[in-house]
Amino acid sequence: MSAELDELKDLTRALRRRASMSDASDWTSGRGAKAADAAAPESAPKTAPAKPARNAAPIAAARSGSLDELATKIQACRACELGKYRLQAVPGVGARDAKVMMIGEGPGFQEDHTGEPFVGRSGQLLDKILESIGLSRKTNVYIANIVKCHPMKNPSDPESHGNDRPPTPEEMDECRGWLEAQIRAIKPKVLVTLGASPAKALLRDQTPITKLRGQWRTFDPGGGLGPIKLLPTFHPAALLRNPELKKDVWEDMKSLRQELSK
Ligand code: SF4
User: Fold this and answer.
1) Engineered SS bond to 198: which of 31, 177, 180, 193, CB 3.0-4.6 Å?
2) Which residue ranges in the chain fall short of pLDDT 70?
3) pLDDT tens across 79-128, in order?
4) pTM metric for this prediction
5) Does residue 80 have its Cβ closer than 6 Å to ligand 1?
6) What share of the chain is helix, strand, coil (3-state, %, to 5)?
7) Residue 87 is part of which domain span?
8) CATH (domain of 212)
């Protein structure tokens, strides 16, 4: 709870720094929109980075293959506690040769029921954000999460609403091998993390997302692919809760567009 309060304080400080919104893109409007989205919360517990999963080498070997092969394997995976209670795993969606890979936190209620990441209000907003810089999950973006199964407060009741929670560092460490294999299969030019959890987990950096966002970093998914540029930004659900944050995300999207034009 104290970690969530810390994160809330960070967001509050960020909001105070901003007096107005001025950019023209249509998704950046909508001040006063009510915050109510089924997506998982912005923040994850602020703990030390988890230790690498046990038997990392055999796991890495098993977590390889084409994007389709990986999706089949992910849908069958029960390697961690999350797999015991999910309705279905959510591998990802989008272009196989995507130049941008967007990485969220984990499936929520709707994703668990549909098998597709970023559906509902967060997904619609993400699509608008992508569209504003000429990107689309149908043509040049792949969207996935750092954990593939729905983290629930009460795992015994996957049919209840308001049951989402952020994945723990241990859960993200257990599952990240799938994401790394997906990155190796797609070979995107740029990674964009959405929200605090995937940024902190991939970068092994506990800096608040309000400070991490907008800073270009790199992430190496292994397999000899080498470091890939990574841009952290806010999760669309955070924008639904706090529309003033759209200005920051618009700045990040302009930076992404510039990077892609190089
Ligand atoms: S969360 Fe990841 S590691 Fe855990 S069961 Fe689902 S796919 Fe497997």
Assistant:
1) 193
2) 1-26, 29-61
3) 999 999 999 999 999 999 999 999 999 999 999 999 999 999 999 999 99
4) 0.81
5) yes
6) 45, 10, 45
7) 55-260
8) 3.40.470.10
